[in-house]
């Protein structure tokens, strides 16, 4: 069908929208803290054997269902039925909540650096106040989401572009510092430092690597707004992959210059990005100029990410669930098309997650736990992508596509199965805490939270269809 009266999204713009959701400078910091310089090898292997196939599979799925606007949930529903389609929609929705809360956390931290110019906020802020401010940021964006949803493209271009440029600048300035005789903090650097240590800690961190580079499917609902989605969507995914590859590999190398690989700060995950730009600015005699430039870029990036997440979550809740599985009150929308009660439920779950974290030792542990929780729930949801891809290749005559990843069906299914297995195992191993000593009180506390939180999320998803069925039976009884 010919599209008329529609302003098309070009594939470079869509690539930036995907890039905003997929990776940022913080993601490099998180995984550098987990694995040190050994993460560079992990990134290279992951990109070659996982991320590139992942992006190309999304490309085929996007071109296969280019007339559908639902993205991942549509892919599963069309290939495997309404029930699995609902559970995909629900798990994607509910797994986005820790992601949004984590993003709101980062906004609070960035504002603290903007005000103080250092990390002093965490020394004076209680766990309760940190959680409360995070919740307020979350609620503010829910309230203004309907007013900014039409500006998401602009926000994504500005936020994603600013973050990518700051990362390039960081890498370039690292080279300048070395040419001027700057010391390498991780010295001595030997080949062994690039080899990850294969132990329980390493296995528990793979989920966070996948979390850091997943999410390109979130822009799939926008595929219908491209002029030639069957050709342009794969190109957008490939461009996003190249940008992410540059960010992760060269960004990690640069971090090894300014941070001692052998003795990393305890709060590196929460404050590492700010430390990095503060250090590079000081080394080059720029004072705090680079720090504040990054803070502004970070806030723009996080604002764009929050806007994109909330808009995509809205589309998933409204477009990809129906009265058979979702209570009618949750599907109710206002005149702007916003599911008011759905947002109330989202806010309640957000508050519940923040409440669970309040009892951790300090603000840094809350930040780390919430981040690591994303490394569990997000990869579990990502498994649906590979499931849908396998189903499409098993029914290739039913689901033709102009863009096909790997012509041989058996090999394609094997690659899809490989990605599914890696993702599922990584998500499962992610339940083991990464940032606290094994066997300590906080370790068992976080382990318990990592197990019960996903179970509660899935349980709510199972209860909602029962409520919907009760409503339907009650209505039929009245008739």
**Shape from CA axes?**
globular
Largest sheet: none
In helices, the fraction of residues equals over 70%
Mean pLDDT: 82
The helix tally amounts to 17
* Number of separate strands: 0
Helix/strand class: mainly alpha
What would you report as the Rg, rounded to the nearest angstrom? 22 Å
Can you tell me about this structure?
It is a single chain. With 479 residues, the chain is mostly helical. It is built from 17 helices and no strands. The two termini are 40 Å apart.
Kindly list the characteristics that best describe this protein.
mainly alpha; 479 residues; single chain; 73% helix; globular
In brief:
This protein is mainly alpha-helical. 73% of the residues lie in helices and 0% in strands. Helix 1 (11-22) crosses helix 10, helix 4 (72-80) packs antiparallel against helix 5 and helix 11 runs antiparallel to helix 12.
Write the layout of secondary structure elements.
Blueprint: H1 11-22, H2 25-35, H3 39-64, H4 72-80, H5 82-116, H6 121-124, H7 127-148, H8 152-179, H9 200-213, H10 229-258, H11 268-283, H12 289-319, H13 328-331, H14 340-357, H15 363-394, H16 409-429, H17 441-478
């Amino acid at each position: 069908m010919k599209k008329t009266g529609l302003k098309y999204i070009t594939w470079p713009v869509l690539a930036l929208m995907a890039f905003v959701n997929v990776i940022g400078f913080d993601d490099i910091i998180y995984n550098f803290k987990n694995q040190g310089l050994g993460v560079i090898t992990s990134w290279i292997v992951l990109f070659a054997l996982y991320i590139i196939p992942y992006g190309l599979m999304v490309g085929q799925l996007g071109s296969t269902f280019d007339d559908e606007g639902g993205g991942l949930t549509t892919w599963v529903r069309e290939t495997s039925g309404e029930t699995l389609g609902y559970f995909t929609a629900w798990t994607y929705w509910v797994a986005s909540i820790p992601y949004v809360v984590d993003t709101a956390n980062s906004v609070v931290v960035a504002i603290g650096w903007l005000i103080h110019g250092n990390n002093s906020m965490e020394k004076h802020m209680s766990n309760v106040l940190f959680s409360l401010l995070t919740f307020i940021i979350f609620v503010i964006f829910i309230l203004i989401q309907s007013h900014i949803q039409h500006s998401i493209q602009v926000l994504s271009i500005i936020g994603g572009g600013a973050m990518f440029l700051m990362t390039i600048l960081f890498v370039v300035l690292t080279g300048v510092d070395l040419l001027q005789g700057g010391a390498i903090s991780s010295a001595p650097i030997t080949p062994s430092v690039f080899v990850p240590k294969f132990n329980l800690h390493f296995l528990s961190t793979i989920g966070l690597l996948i979390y850091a580079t997943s999410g390109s499917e979130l822009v799939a609902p926008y595929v219908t707004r491209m002029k030639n989605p069957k050709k342009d969507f794969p190109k957008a995914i490939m461009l996003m992959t190249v940008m992410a590859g540059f960010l992760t590999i060269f960004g990690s190398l640069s971090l090894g210059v300014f941070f001692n690989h052998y003795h990393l700060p305890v709060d590196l995950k929460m404050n590492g990005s700010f430390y990095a730009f503060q250090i590079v600015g000081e080394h080059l005699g720029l004072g705090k100029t680079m720090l504040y430039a990054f803070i502004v870029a970070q806030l723009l990036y996080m604002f764009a990410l929050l806007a994109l997440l909330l808009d995509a979550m809205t589309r998933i809740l409204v477009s990809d669930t129906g009265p058979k599985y979702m209570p009618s009150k949750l599907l109710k929308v206002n005149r702007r098309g916003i599911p008011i009660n759905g947002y109330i439920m989202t806010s309640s779950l957000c508050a519940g997650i923040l409440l669970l974290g309040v009892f951790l030792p300090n603000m840094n542990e809350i930040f780390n736990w919430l981040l690591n929780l994303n490394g569990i729930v997000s990869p579990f949801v990502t498994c649906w992508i590979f499931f849908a891809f396998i189903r499409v290749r098993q029914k290739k005559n039913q689901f033709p596509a102009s863009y096909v990843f790997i012509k041989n069906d058996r090999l394609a299914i094997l690659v899809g199965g490989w990605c599914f297995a890696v993702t599922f195992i990584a998500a499962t191993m992610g339940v083991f805490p990464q940032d606290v000593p094994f066997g300590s009180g906080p370790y068992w506390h976080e382990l318990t939270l990592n197990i019960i939180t996903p179970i509660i999320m899935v349980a709510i998803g199972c209860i909602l269809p029962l409520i919907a069925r009760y409503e339907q039976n009650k209505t039929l009884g009245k008739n």
